[in-house]
């Protein structure tokens, strides 16, 4: 039996499968989708079996060394998907497959010495080896460095061998359980006297008082105050059993989640859910855009769609943006579907993620709620994929493999003949355009569930406030409304748009701005640590007390951070109880949830925060939303700047007046005439869409054109210039007349980590060969020995130009 294996070497020359023999003992075991260890040149590497066959045309093939999985970790579907993914994102097969699995399963190797000829070992060396004849290199370098040279010699002369083993990053969690052993033995113990026996008796009585079964040893120790050794001696006497078992780490353990029943749908919801239910009923793939204003009850539509998928014995994936994967959101799914829900997001530890993922693989759950990569959940009977806030840029991975979760979902929807539901109050332009063209079905929810109107929005031009003599960061109207809210016992959300609003250090005398010495970007000020930090490479320095350029002392922190807003608030509204949510206050695990819970329980009047409070929150008492600096994102060098501004303003505004109380929104900024701000304040998605589509058409941007992007980076400027010029001229000879070639030009961020960056952009409608040309260019420079260390990334459908 022969296995075709892709190995863990991300390089163009090995981006294919290699044939290996399956040793006789393993023939009944080896299956496509399993991870294996194979010899590769002098190394042993991890790989995936993609196919098995009877014979190979390759001569002298080697044996598989080890099979790592008892069952395949990639389903046949995922094996196909990985191939498609690699080809469409210009990445290596191995990278695509690894992206589908939890990080814990990615290979890290530990080297071991093993003994081939024990009789040749001196006693000094032989004692180091474990009973199984292994000694890890790690152990040697830590504790027996002086023997390293000797061990290497022994390896050269064939006394020892070196093997590579994959280290399981997520050591399975084991827990000790205790249960009652021999009952007469135990009861007899209760009658004994003696001080030491007291604790043992307590353990016995505790176990006798409970229904027969296994109880966590830790819990029993805690309950009885007994020590581990006293339970161990009970165990020796046969009165109890101690057993160690593998358990799942459950991040949601002990949480009290209220079960919810399906709500009777409103007429609007009924209309919107119909195409979804039809698609489920008919086992027919459809992509359905649920375009519903904020608070229109999209989540209830998701929940009831999932219910009907589960009723058919199928499985569901729900994707939510990382940032809104809040406990509030998770509880809505756990509250309806209980323990059949697995949750995957980046706040979980590597081990927790691995455990959640194994529940999916073992078919112990049928619903997954997770961020982007949950789209690869290894379900085999998928009945629906729901993408909430489908316009969010976090659904695009900006690293290899550069996939968009929406594309992957639709691929899987076709494979399983099931619906893909895209939900948003502000769909991406691309998505809405497809819905208008009929490629997606459109379901509209134009009003809120509770029959209150959309909140009224007032736009305040802060230049006018300044003219009126108001120098604070809050307009008069916002102040009044905040005060009124506190008096009425209602709550407010204050949103500070941080993106594009760097807090930088500026010299008021010479205009010097502190810049990263390795990247063309200004350093961000972190008050808490008194340091300046580069968000691209992590470079840090102490905040200077005088200007490094002109020595002036008037060097000051500029820009507005949430901390500054909080300080200001304390001055002008001392009576307000404020909860601040930003990266600083939520860095500790669980703090995010704590802050939101206490806000939900009315322990604060104002929730102040950044992007992380813009979405998904549903608090009935919030009647006022204030937006500080609505316009900052408009000036980013990004053709989606207007779209992102519109989406964000709509989302934040949507937090106000979601239930019985009426909502009010105040939007502050300097460039407030901009159509994205004006139309967001009128809750007018369609006009925004039409306006923005005209702009995109005029400037030949998506969705009218795809953006192909080749980015070159190198430590030397001349190298990137030359290489990108070569690539541009190669492409210009081949592109169809309808396509546009732009560049080479410097990237919007011209240097990152000391590497200069240049890019070539292609705007195209139909260019079936583009992928091959990109691959050719990349392969060409990989082979070219005269340019070392040139990095090229290619994208066929770039989302940003950064
Ligand atoms: N049919 C219904 N009857 C009563 N209440 C409902 C119904 N459907 C939804 N709701 C409630 O209405 C509120 C708003 O719904 P939901 O949060 O799902 O809106 P949404 O469309 O997801 O909004 P957003 O886009 O702002 O997140 C929630 O508190 C939800 O429980
Ligand atoms: Zn930097």
TrEMBL record:
Function in brief: Initiates the restart of stalled replication forks, which reloads the replicative helicase on sites other than the origin of replication. Recognizes and binds to abandoned replication forks and remodels them to uncover a helicase loading site. Promotes assembly of the primosome at these replication forks.
Domain called Helicase C-terminal: residue spans: 542-699
GO molecular function terms noted in the UniProt entry: 3'-5' DNA helicase activity; ATP binding; ATP hydrolysis activity; DNA binding; zinc ion binding
InterPro entries linked to this entry: DEAD/DEAH_box_helicase_dom, Helicase_ATP-bd, Helicase_C-like, P-loop_NTPase, PriA, PriA_3primeBD, PriA_3primeBD_sf, PriA_C
Chain's gene name: priA
Cofactor: record remark: Binds 2 zinc ions per subunit.
Annotated EC: 5.6.2.4
Subunit organization: Component of the replication restart primosome.
Catalytic activity, as annotated: ATP + H2O = ADP + phosphate + H(+); Couples ATP hydrolysis with the unwinding of duplex DNA by translocating in the 3'-5' direction
Native organism: Fictibacillus arsenicus
Entry protein name: Replication restart protein PriA
Family: Belongs to the helicase family. PriA subfamily.
Keyword match Membrane: no
Xref: SMART domains: DEXDc, HELICc
One cellular component (GO) term of this entry: primosome complex
CDD domains: DEXHc_priA (cd17929), SF2_C_priA (cd18804)
GO biological process, one term: DNA replication initiation
Residue numbers binding Zn(2+) 1: 507, 510, 547, 550
Taxonomy, superkingdom: Bacteria
Keywords, alphabetical: ATP-binding, DNA replication, DNA-binding, Helicase, Hydrolase, Isomerase, Metal-binding, Nucleotide-binding, Primosome, Zinc
NCBIfam families for this protein: priA, PRK05580.1-3
Residues of the Helicase ATP-binding domain: 279-445
Residues involved in Zn(2+) 2 binding: 516, 519, 534, 537
The protein's required cofactors: Zn(2+)
């Amino acid at each position: 039996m022969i296995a075709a294996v892709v190995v863990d070497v991300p390089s163009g020359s090995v981006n294919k499968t290699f044939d290996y023999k399956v040793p006789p003992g393993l023939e009944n075991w080896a299956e496509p989708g399993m991870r294996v260890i194979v010899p590769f040149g002098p190394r042993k590497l991890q790989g995936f079996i993609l196919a098995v066959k009877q014979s190979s045309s390759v001569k002298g093939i080697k044996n598989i060394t080890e099979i790592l999985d008892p069952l395949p970790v990639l389903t046949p579907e995922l094996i196909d998907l990985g191939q498609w993914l690699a080809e469409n994102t210009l990445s290596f097969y191995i990278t695509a497959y690894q992206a589908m699995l939890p990080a814990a399963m990615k290979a890290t190797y530990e080297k071991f010495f093993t003994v081939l000829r024990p009789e040749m070992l001196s006693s000094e060396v032989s004692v180091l080896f474990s009973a199984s004849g292994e000694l890890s290199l790690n152990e040697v370098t830590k504790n027996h460095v002086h023997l390293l040279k000797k061990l290497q010699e022994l390896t050269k002369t064939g006394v020892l061998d070196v093997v590579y083993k994959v280290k399981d990053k997520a050591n399975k969690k084991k827990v000790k359980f205790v249960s009652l052993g021999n009952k007469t033995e135990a009861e007899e113990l209760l009658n004994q006297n003696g001080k030491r026996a007291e604790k043992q008796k307590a353990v016995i009585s505790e176990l006798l008082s409970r229904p027969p079964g296994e109880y966590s040893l830790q819990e029993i120790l805690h309950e009885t105050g007994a020590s581990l050794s006293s339970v161990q001696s009970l165990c020796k006497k046969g009165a109890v059993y101690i057993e160690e078992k593998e358990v799942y780490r459950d991040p949601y353990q002990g949480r009290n989640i209220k079960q919810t029943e399906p709500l009777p749908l409103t007429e609007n919801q009924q209309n919107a859910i119909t195409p979804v239910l039809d698609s489920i009923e008919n086992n027919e793939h459809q992509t359905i855009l649920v375009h519903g204003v904020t608070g229109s009850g999209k989540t209830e539509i998701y929940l009831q769609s999932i219910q009907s998928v589960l009723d058919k014995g199928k499985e569901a994936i729900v994707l939510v943006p990382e940032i809104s994967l809040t406990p509030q959101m998770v509880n809505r799914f756990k509250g309806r579907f209980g323990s059949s829900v697995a949750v995957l997001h980046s706040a979980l530890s590597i081990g927790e993620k691995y455990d959640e993922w194994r529940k999916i693989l073992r078919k112990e759950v049928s619903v997954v709620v997770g961020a982007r990569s949950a789209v690869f959940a290894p379900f085999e009977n998928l009945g629906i994929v729901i993408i909430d806030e489908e316009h969010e840029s976090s659904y695009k991975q900006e690293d290899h493999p550069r996939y968009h979760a929406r594309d992957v979902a639709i691929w899987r929807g076709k494979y399983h003949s099931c619906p893909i539901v895209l939900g948003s109050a502000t769909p991406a332009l691309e998505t809405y355009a497809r819905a208008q063209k009929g490629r997606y079905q459109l379901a509209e929810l134009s009003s809120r569930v509770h029959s209150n109107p959309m909140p009224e929005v007032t736009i305040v031009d802060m230049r006018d406030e300044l003219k009126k003599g108001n120098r604070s960061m809050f307009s008069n109207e916002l102040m009044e409304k905040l005060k009124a809210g506190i008096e009425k016992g209602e709550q407010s959300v204050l949103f500070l748009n941080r993106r594009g609003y760097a807090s930088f250090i500026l010299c008021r005398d010479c205009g010097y701005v502190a810049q990263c010495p390795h990247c063309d970007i200004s350093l961000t000020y972190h008050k808490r640590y008194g340091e300046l930090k580069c968000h691209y490479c992590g470079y840090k320095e102490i905040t200077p007390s005088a200007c490094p350029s002109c020595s002036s002392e008037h060097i000051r922190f500029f820009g507005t951070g949430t901390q500054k807003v909080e300080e200001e608030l304390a001055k002008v509204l001392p009576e307000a109880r404020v909860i601040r949510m930003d990266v600083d206050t939520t860095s500790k695990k669980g703090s995010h949830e704590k802050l939101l819970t206490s806000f939900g329980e009315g322990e604060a009047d104002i929730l102040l925060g950044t992007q992380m409070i813009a979405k998904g929150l549903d608090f009935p008492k919030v009647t006022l939303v204030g937006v500080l600096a609505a316009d900052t994102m408009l000036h980013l060098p990004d053709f989606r700047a207007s779209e992102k501004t519109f989406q964000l303003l709509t989302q934040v505004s949507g937090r106000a007046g979601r239930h019985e109380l009426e909502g009010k929104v105040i939007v502050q900024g300097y460039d407030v005439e901009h159509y994205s701000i004006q139309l967001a304040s009128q809750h007018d998605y369609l006009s925004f869409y039409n306006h923005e589509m005209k702009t995109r058409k005029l400037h030949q941007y998506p969705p009218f054109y795809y953006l192909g992007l080749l980015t070159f980076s190198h430590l030397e400027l001349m190298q990137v210039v030359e290489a990108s010029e070569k690539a541009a001229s190669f492409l210009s000879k081949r592109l169809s007349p309808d396509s546009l070639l732009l560049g080479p030009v410097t990237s919007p961020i011209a240097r990152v980590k000391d590497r200069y960056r240049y890019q070539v952009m292609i705007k195209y409608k139909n260019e079936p060969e583009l992928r091959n040309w990109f691959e050719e260019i990349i392969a060409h420079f990989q082979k070219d020995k005269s340019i070392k260390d040139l990095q090229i990334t290619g994208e066929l459908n770039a989302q940003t130009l950064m």
